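Aim 2, interim progress: modelling of the adenosine-5'-triphosphate-bound target.
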Amino acid sequence: MNFIVEELMLFISTALNYLATLFSPGHYHHDLTFIIRQKSTPPNQVYDAAELYLPSIELINPSTRTIGVSKTPRQEAVKLAMESGEQIADTFEDINLNWLYVVQTFPSGQVTRRFELTFHKKHKDKVLTSYLRHVVTRAEAIKKEEKILKLRSVNSPSRVDLEHPATFETIAMGPDQKTKIIKDLDRFVRRREFYKKVGKAWKRGYLLYGPPGTGKSSLIAAMANHLKFDVYELELDGIYSDSQLKSVLLSTANRSILVIEDIDFSAVNARKRKCGITVSGLLNFMDGLWSSCGDERIIVFTTNHKDRLEPALLRPGRMDVHIHMSYCTPHAFKVLASNYLGVQDLDRHPLYGEIAGLLESTEVAPAEVCEELLKRDDDVDDDDVDAALEGVVKFLKLKKLEGDNNNIDEPEFQEGKRQDVDVSVNDDDSESSST
Ligand SMILES: Nc1ncnc2c1ncn2[C@@H]1O[C@H](COP(=O)(O)OP(=O)(O)OP(=O)(O)O)[C@@H](O)[C@H]1O
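Predicted structure of the complex, ligand included:
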């Protein structure tokens, strides 16, 4: 009997609870909340877009208590960002929306970040399609305006703003070569339809080769700054299986440059370890993966020793453009002198002839010349220019002497002859011809 009463009581209390919930004002939630979590593999495009978009609307409202403020040395203006727990309101076609930012730190040290986007349920379809598309489109435009390029090591989720200042203007290379590279890049990004028509993955491979300090990394930054693409660095040595490679590649965004440095070392290491991914394995894999889900991908390989690469790697479709970065030429020196000393008409300087002669006969990387020019103060007057150029002459004479003494040995970099950067475009569908 007691048992039946207890069961009855339990039933009544459950039913009452249910009725209470049903008629409580909170049950019929008018509002719906989308949770937009930060993810690294693959990245959550909506989260990344919200991060850029939200600071562009009014971040400070009467309920705001804290706001993130930052500025890096290269940024012109101070940047504002939402802090955890803060909310901001937005309106879109008469829909009122509320954004909340939440950062959670767990005892394990793991940190998660998310946005919570709340609005009236009846607008669900419009928010899902039009509003979120608006956020992503605005974010892309902001990114273009602000040139916030992300540099990310794909093997680790951390991401930093790429603030490498190199542009095609500051890179020391021949004007023809520069034009050729810029034309090739611009043409590549214009050719969505072409790649679709011929059924090829929309990607282009560049091989940058030459001695250390000749500007390979600077050229990658100039390419990224020109195209406003993010840059991802991939270390093949840390990758052991196709599935790991797949998840790493899927974590990279479209409109990005994937950089794989020192591929001659990677090849040797992969052979030594008899496991891991080789560059050719990577290229085969990418063709399959990116023909189905990748758009506007540029892959840049760098090496100090092109001669050590397997010939199969160098063929068109794999490395379409070969760019040779050489030791400093007189022409390259003019660009550096203009960047560092503000000298425009170097040909007329009495020391230029001597410098040009020394550069023709000395193996010196542009990076070394930059170091020498950096010894000067920021505000250079004519006397400082003379002193700087005299310093360069002294430095080059020393380098030449060292080079002459070492000349009995094989030169380490056969490819580092003092000719301006050489660009050879390696495929049939290119406008430019090989040099
Ligand atoms: N061609 C160049 N034009 C302008 N600056 C250059 C050039 N080459 C080198 N520099 C200067 O030297 C520095 C080092 O060059 P960078 O790292 O681009 O060379 P690298 O070829 O990538 O070298 P490594 O093979 O050692 O990685 C750059 O930050 C830049 O200041």
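The chain has a mean pLDDT of 78. The chain has 13 helices and 14 strands.
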